[in-house]
Amino acid sequence: MRRILIIGAGRSASSLIRYLLSKSESENLHLIVADLSLALAEKKTEKHPNATPIALNIFDADERKAAIEKASIVISMLPAHLHIEIAKDCLQFKKHLVTASYISDAMQALDEEAKKNNLIFMNEIGLDPGIDHMSAMKVIDEIRSKGGNMLLFESFCGGLVAPESDNNLWNYKFTWAPRNVVLAGQGGAAKFIQEGTYKYIPYGTLFRRTEFLEVEGYDKFEAYSNRDSLKYRSIYGLDDILTLYRGTIRRVGFSKAWNMFVQLGMTDDSYIMEDSENMSYRQFTNSFLPYHPTDSVEIKTRLILKIDQDDIMWDKLLELDLFNPDKKVNLPNATPAQILEKILSDSWTLAPDDKDMIVMYHKFGYELYGEKSQIDSKMVCIGDDQTYTAMAKTVGLPVAMATLLILNGKITTPGVQLPIKKEVYLPILKELEEYGVVFNEQTMPYFGYNPDLF
């Protein structure tokens, strides 16, 4: 049997494992599901006859190499910085590799050797990055095949709570790594290009510069800019495009409310707060406010954030229990961002019967035969439950499908790569539709950012 080694059995691996097990009889597959926690690997394989759960410490080189040497192909579902040693072992033992992570400089450095060994190191084949690349390149390639010239490309994606589980004032719950949410937008100004002009948004104003989107059946959303929208300009072949923008989707009003944390300094991850372990939530909030002999923490917060008494922003803060003197942080040597993550997790953790939702939205502006048009492409995916979430489905299924296509010789281009070639995106996008990941495209007049010209 063909052995697929899956390293990492975390949340994103559930749909991946279920898909490959469903194909295991017809495709002659045996899955080796490896995790530091044997119990987690056993839970994900559910005693399936074509799966073997194993405990694997990836930092034990002998143990790791032994597992990789026996595999036909390797999938790494570990955090991105842990892929590189696995990739080097895959080179040594001549094994293909699939990951959902961004291509790091260290991974890219293996490209030449991978090509020499005719090995496919497929990366960025999850949701974002992944489905965003594939769905975008499909439309861009179709426009180019007709002789069209790209004028605008905007791409938005967000992990949200499904409407039936949306029951807090923030219209948000953590559906993926909470730390990434708290630190979003940090590390440099957001950069994009608009009507041929480079634009920059510093972190301090990022969440007050949003774009509104509407998805039929799901009402309105907003999006704030990703840090570097220009990263894929050359990869997508869009060096001459007038507008290129990538953003993160939230429900309308989230960004304005989140900006309160930014203003206070609660999202800062650069220093440790003294005696954080014994700090109450109220003390944490008060740490960022000026001293006043008579004003309460609540009054000081209202004043510094300029919140009126009837402003829903105040209710959003109250909902998070930020002023509770009895709740303790219980995190030693914690940064403000780590404490904020802890506080938000109290309110924003998905309940056992909650469902999550993925929303992706692309805009393509182009000129064809002298006429300007726009295609809007929208996808909404709702999770099944807490195991087979929309996030696990949209991250794990493309990984699984790419793995099978590589094993079956349908993807043949060697080297370190992302899924922008037709041999990758066409079959995967088609099969994803069977699992409810469907893009609805609508053509309309193109206005760009100069509607007065039309």
Automatic annotation (TrEMBL):
InterPro entries in the cross-refs: AASS (IPR051168), NAD(P)-bd_dom_sf (IPR036291), Sacchrp_dh-like_C (IPR032095), Sacchrp_dh_NADP-bd (IPR005097)
Top-level division of the source organism's lineage: Bacteria
Pfam families documented for this protein: Sacchrp_dh_C (PF16653), Sacchrp_dh_NADP (PF03435)
GO molecular function, one term: saccharopine dehydrogenase activity
Keywords: Oxidoreductase
Domain Saccharopine dehydrogenase-like C-terminal: 126-437
SUPFAM superfamilies, per database record: Glyceraldehyde-3-phosphate dehydrogenase-like, C-terminal domain (SSF55347), NAD(P)-binding Rossmann-fold domains (SSF51735)
Saccharopine dehydrogenase NADP binding domain location: 4-121
Keyword Oxidoreductase applies: yes
Keyword match Oxidoreductase: yes
BP GO annotations: lysine biosynthetic process via aminoadipic acid
GO cellular component terms given for this protein: cytoplasm
Descriptive protein name: Saccharopine dehydrogenase, NADP-dependent
The species this protein was found in: Flavobacterium saccharophilum
